[in-house]
Amino acid sequence: MELIEGDDGTRPILTAMSEIAGQLAPIIAGNYLGRDPMGKGVLLGGVAGVAPASVVILGAGTSGLNAACAFSGLGAQVHILDRDLNKLREVRRHLGNHVTTLFADQNNIIKSLKFADVFLGAVLIHGRRTPNILKREQIAQMKPLSIFIDFSIDEGGISETSRPTTLADPIYIEEGVIHYCVPNITAGVNRTASRALANILVDQLRTIGQLGVKAALEQNANLRRGTYLLDGVCLIPELIEHFKDRKSSR
Amino acid sequence: MELIEGDDGTRPILTAMSEIAGQLAPIIAGNYLGRDPMGKGVLLGGVAGVAPASVVILGAGTSGLNAACAFSGLGAQVHILDRDLNKLREVRRHLGNHVTTLFADQNNIIKSLKFADVFLGAVLIHGRRTPNILKREQIAQMKPLSIFIDFSIDEGGISETSRPTTLADPIYIEEGVIHYCVPNITAGVNRTASRALANILVDQLRTIGQLGVKAALEQNANLRRGTYLLDGVCLIPELIEHFKDRKSSR
Amino acid sequence: MELIEGDDGTRPILTAMSEIAGQLAPIIAGNYLGRDPMGKGVLLGGVAGVAPASVVILGAGTSGLNAACAFSGLGAQVHILDRDLNKLREVRRHLGNHVTTLFADQNNIIKSLKFADVFLGAVLIHGRRTPNILKREQIAQMKPLSIFIDFSIDEGGISETSRPTTLADPIYIEEGVIHYCVPNITAGVNRTASRALANILVDQLRTIGQLGVKAALEQNANLRRGTYLLDGVCLIPELIEHFKDRKSSR
Amino acid sequence: MELIEGDDGTRPILTAMSEIAGQLAPIIAGNYLGRDPMGKGVLLGGVAGVAPASVVILGAGTSGLNAACAFSGLGAQVHILDRDLNKLREVRRHLGNHVTTLFADQNNIIKSLKFADVFLGAVLIHGRRTPNILKREQIAQMKPLSIFIDFSIDEGGISETSRPTTLADPIYIEEGVIHYCVPNITAGVNRTASRALANILVDQLRTIGQLGVKAALEQNANLRRGTYLLDGVCLIPELIEHFKDRKSSR
Amino acid sequence: MELIEGDDGTRPILTAMSEIAGQLAPIIAGNYLGRDPMGKGVLLGGVAGVAPASVVILGAGTSGLNAACAFSGLGAQVHILDRDLNKLREVRRHLGNHVTTLFADQNNIIKSLKFADVFLGAVLIHGRRTPNILKREQIAQMKPLSIFIDFSIDEGGISETSRPTTLADPIYIEEGVIHYCVPNITAGVNRTASRALANILVDQLRTIGQLGVKAALEQNANLRRGTYLLDGVCLIPELIEHFKDRKSSR
Amino acid sequence: MELIEGDDGTRPILTAMSEIAGQLAPIIAGNYLGRDPMGKGVLLGGVAGVAPASVVILGAGTSGLNAACAFSGLGAQVHILDRDLNKLREVRRHLGNHVTTLFADQNNIIKSLKFADVFLGAVLIHGRRTPNILKREQIAQMKPLSIFIDFSIDEGGISETSRPTTLADPIYIEEGVIHYCVPNITAGVNRTASRALANILVDQLRTIGQLGVKAALEQNANLRRGTYLLDGVCLIPELIEHFKDRKSSR
User: Fold this and answer.
1) Closest partner CB to A100 (pick from F52, F101, F103)
2) What is the pTM for the complete model shown?
């Protein structure tokens, strides 16, 4: 479903789910920063005379931007990193000097890992497995009981230490760092997520209802782009390519 | 400790703890609104096309104002009620038209209970047991699985359905409503809270260290106001009065 | 004139006029909400302890967005509806959580009609008559003396109950609802509107002055797009099509 | 009723009515700036490339501050004048650099009269007739068809050219300037105003209901301060003084 | 280097340098407005009761927008002019009613020269010498000791009175106006500028390092666009054209 | 003049001068951060991908708050320290999460000296010489070519390394740190400062003009508080005390 495209070439469902995920980040982080008995006992926004928590977001796409906005809305000190300067400009335009933007080179990533109370991986590389940007020894340099949230876990995660967890048992500790790696966190706010999906899909569903699946897919290229198999034929060029390679490499 | 006063007659420790509590409210609410499997599955801030959650705050004192600011920072739709119009003015000054202010008469309280996804009791009546402002049948009119947080639980709570819980086991359901009634929620962010306390107490502790407890209390009226018993003598006028009454009433 | 296009395919004059119209909406609404002796007697922004007016805007294009911004600037509680989620995202980016965005399905439209003190129709379907989205019985469900402003009245209006009025006699009541359906409301602020037009047209007028009308139209495709007839020949493809159909259908 | 005081020495009803009046100012001004056929045809907030209207507010008390906030919320260019620098500081704190603050000396008043599209008199001198700060020849220097709103008209008005009008027939032209001098403009939004009053008076009315008028007045000094005559005896010191003077001066 | 293009056709280095230049404008202006003994002695942001300085920015591109944002952040009263209404719209979207947008016709330019304490020329016409938009007699109409900053000085300057200066000796006075015409002002904040450059160039430099200059230029069209000569052959079409014209005109 | 008091016990001239000084701080800092050839070459606000400068302000009184607001308006990352938590609360209320507030204990002061690009001493202890809060070895820990501005230099300065300079020759380097210690920096914006003074003094001057100095001082206690000697008699109790002590100590 996430592969369905809109007329403008963007993926509306992916966008909506990323907006939701981004906004959930401070709820998750705030919960594990403060949770009795394990967490650090730190308040995201601080109080007069006590500094707020330091939040680092790697990736300034839709989920990163939404997370930056929500963390900043709670008063946390936010740093956001990306290699795309235009995305960082977009962040500055939205959030002004509430948020520090940094170029995502190795140097800045390592530095920010060290001062982060919360580190959010919000990198998304379409259609490919996310590379392990962070090594185990880098995670080990984070402060004890700081929070590492990996939104890229669906695609393999951005850290060597990432492995998928569930909403029912969402965290584990590695290298002294609390890892939160739930693949599909929007399921936690299913009512909001369902409505967001419905708003996007309602027209397509109506078309399918009227024409039947096959005719609808023929007529509507956007829908087709979200279809893996039709009558046993694969419709996703990347997948075809992928399996062709595997075949020939045997 | 919460009875110690500053030179301006306010209670600095109570203020700091209320600021912290207020900021924790959206973390708590966001967690139980979305939590798998029980919660409503609602995102506090909504997304484009899906309305945000409705948050009602009863009481526009320090904790209410801080909660309003934090909920609003996450994009929730906030209503705040108080009988003191100057406090509501203060809210409007801070948060402008992000937040709706309502006079806390019975009519508005009942109405807002019905549309609230989150209802936060942030009423504080100094030195007295909070009256049970909300009746069981009113709580029962709230929407199923909405959240009721009672910050007044230390003083008895604002609802007939309130009873103290703990950080380890913080919620229970009554009348279909999730109750969160942890008396001392700032303990959950103990590091931030301790620093806030230290900033306030450092000078007093230094005085005590230099002079000894007794001389320090003699010299410093603010400290004395936070002292229950000194050499077996009660120093809190309200307590003396209270026990005198009980004695004579026997 | 509204059909003239800029190099980027947008219609600059239509845009400018929509910006003006949107900003006029709260002046109109505020006037009829409060007007002696007929109006509801409600202040758009409320005061401490009294809720602000509820404003619903159908359509998040240029005029809807400008209206949302202006109503929100006066402290009203604004809901804005559209079927285009990207437009709603644009609203959230501009106005943050001051404004609630809703998907414009039948359900949300009906619900919001019921709680609106002001309902603004800001739908524009280019080059076609606006369909009567609202039925008479739906308008009848609005609160007595609430305001219905129809910016689509030039194209036929969005309600069965809409009919054009004039700046001199701008309102009428149907189903207990005050209707304001002035087709060309920017004429009310003619000085600002004229300057906005002049800023857009000054270069085109200069070209026409130098080359004469005919040569200017030949050279400038944007201008041509705003020309109905040249030497007795119709230049607007949609119109040609339209009349061809009518001919053949006879 | 406006003389009743709160425990803090302020006059809560006067404050609430001033808040309402201030917020009404841009509705009034916007209406007469743009009204067909007489007004200047100017949009308060301007559009891209066309400057907004210039609004000058004389007096930075409750009504002036609320008007500044509302005008500024619509995008007008606001100047506010007062002789009390602390009030101007309060404006800067609220509205930052949206609004220019000027010391209300003769020089600044005259200068700002000349560039104002809207001039709002929001001066209030408690318990005394407002002096005619503005002379006829000064009003005559205003731009043709600019708007002059006099909120002090209840106390005599701030201009020689001011004379009371009514909500039914609110304006007249003198020296080419549209004068709006309705004494009790909050009556135009009677529903909001009544609720605001009720929120303030509800406790007093309950006391009166329980004790009767006389006992209530004896018990409650605040109420007494709003009572002109009780059993034929005048309770307002200023009035007693005033009539004593008149007597003795005969 | 400034001619290198990104994939989206923009020039990332020019953009970054313009962002820096724009933010430097209020530091420069504030310094010469206040400098002892020569300047006007005016504070950019004013104080309660004293109006802020008037800043006029000609050109709403990257440097103009950044300057508007920074001047406005210090509390100055900013007017920004451009002939492109979409750029002015962008300013309004960013900075709301903090800033007045004006169409850059002769009339508005002359008017704003007269009231400006600071006039910033931020016009950029790609690849061509900036025309002398301002005549000497217009500069002479500016207030004595007002500041004229010319960001277009690299391309010839926007005023007849502009001539290049240096960071070491940055200003001169003509017609009573302080001229600041340093061609490469970003050199003053070389550390920030170098990092900004490095962030943009790092990938290109890596490619050059791996492939050698020639292969890198062959592969990468963006880099090629920033190359004047390769093996004695000119790669910039405009330059070729330019010299061809000169040849043939001899 | 700075000792003259207003009716509310504050010192209006001191307040106005502190507001001006605070707003000048980023102009000074920006100038010496970037100045060729000596400064660090850092831009206060950073750009997309490059972090802004770190500014530390010691003291959250009028000048500190105004400086925080102005630095933050330019996009710098601001930390402000004070021992008075209510002042820090005031900062949070004004500037929200743009600014980090820290309790001014030794620990936080030392830490923030180390990361500051700009350190502003904005401490004021009324009527007494400011204690040397900062030792030479602490200043030596600051980063090379960072800026140290001492607003307390009139009262002796807050650092062992502080010594008064002049507007004509404002800086010197000690321990690798650029010191800016001009005692009366508001003289640099003399026009704005004079108007601010005039607005405060105009009524007093009128009284003096009408009554003569002596009668005016007798009548007006506020004026008297700003008078050192009248007819050879000292009027300032602290001074009398001071010289009595010195006499007796001989």
Assistant:
1) F52
2) 0.93
